[in-house]
């Protein structure tokens, strides 16, 4: 009898140990092999550094992402993979360290993604969010603290973030590269599409629903979302989109034709003294990064980007999505010194000619102080406001759901950072309930705003509608009433106060 009791106790202990082990290191089968992750304090299963494509190094530099080599046994996935090859992360302007990638590792071998899931089985079919980071297509990475997915996953969403190649490694075109595969220049976008393909094939194993996927991004990540909605290569990989401060309708940012991009690549090769793509591929990544000084942006390559964003939408060739989009009150980005009133007016005359007075009506310059404010507002609206407004208007005119926000909270700060207000990227920690990762003097209203925004975002990810019980009603945007949601000290729906300014600016920019 004693032996039987001891045996039962031993078996019970083994069961407990087994359950504990699974809770700490859940194991999931992916298409390339089994992976083990960890469990967060909230009980969320966390998998970091999952390879979704082969390392894009050596002969795979400047090639479409290739399949991962399968592995035996169980791969431990508990730390982020290396951030994409880029310069060292150094705080600048309004962006403190929390908004930047970790200092290391940084590597050309960077095609890894991360999953946060609270599912207890593969049968739950939770909604899925795939996050795409910003960084001007030249920097950024999924390991940035404000992109942590645990808080959103705790609200019933499977959160995925991925790396994609940036800078010269992600957006380099050359005639020889185009001969190899029919096009060149959009390797970073192809990485994003490959990650979405991985999600489609694998996310059910994490309890996610591959038929209910939302893509979301901010800045270059939002531009990427806009590109993916326009790309035939991304068709069927998602059904909703969140675009935070970034699109390209009334803009030439994404209008570089392939031939022009190829010539830019040929000129760089000549400057580096190399005559072939193979020689370029042989240059060490750190040396190429240092010597190239490459300005990055997607290319109209006829494959990933078949035409300009504007033309794709005009021809109704975009992928069908529900949309949540908006921008921040103080995210004007000046690429040069602030001009006094006289010089600002001269600049507008030089840029817009006979239409300069139309711009001055809404971005005036009666004195230097007003001119300084107008330059920031004009920058904000030209880069972000007009782009999101035009997208929302197109969406509404086609009877597709769209919800528009304006983030107005002047992010609490110390010292010189106070001047940046509701700055570019400032909304991200709120939307994903990650204030705890940012060292700012938060107030009660900030935590309330983060709870509200993340609830809106999660509701939209679930159903394509941000509304729910117990929160202020957010009406869908339409071209007649133009209702948007203020997200800041005031949290309410209002008629867009600057709609006419954006309409005029769009007309002026299109007439150039």
Features:
11-stranded mixed beta sheet; 14 strands; 36% helix; Rossmann fold; alpha/beta; 15% strand; 512 residues
Explain how this protein is built.
This protein has a domain at 24-320: Rossmann fold (3-Layer(aba) Sandwich), CATH 3.40.50.1820. Helices cover 36% and strands 15% of the residues. The protein has 512 residues and is of the alpha/beta class. The longest helix is centred in the last third of the chain and has 30 residues, at 368-397. It has helices at 2-24, 150-153, 167-170, 175-181, 187-202, 220-230, 258-272, 277-282, 285-292, 309-314, 341-352, 356-362, 368-397, 428-431, 444-463, 499-511; strands at 27-30, 33-36, 38-39, 45-51, 74-76, 112-117, 126-132, 158-162, 208-218, 240-244, 322-328, 402-407, 483-487, 493-495. The strands form 2 sheets. It has an 11-stranded mixed sheet with strand order 3-4-6-8-7-9-10-11-12-13-14, with helices on both faces. Strands 1-2-5 form a 3-stranded mixed sheet, with no helix packed on it.
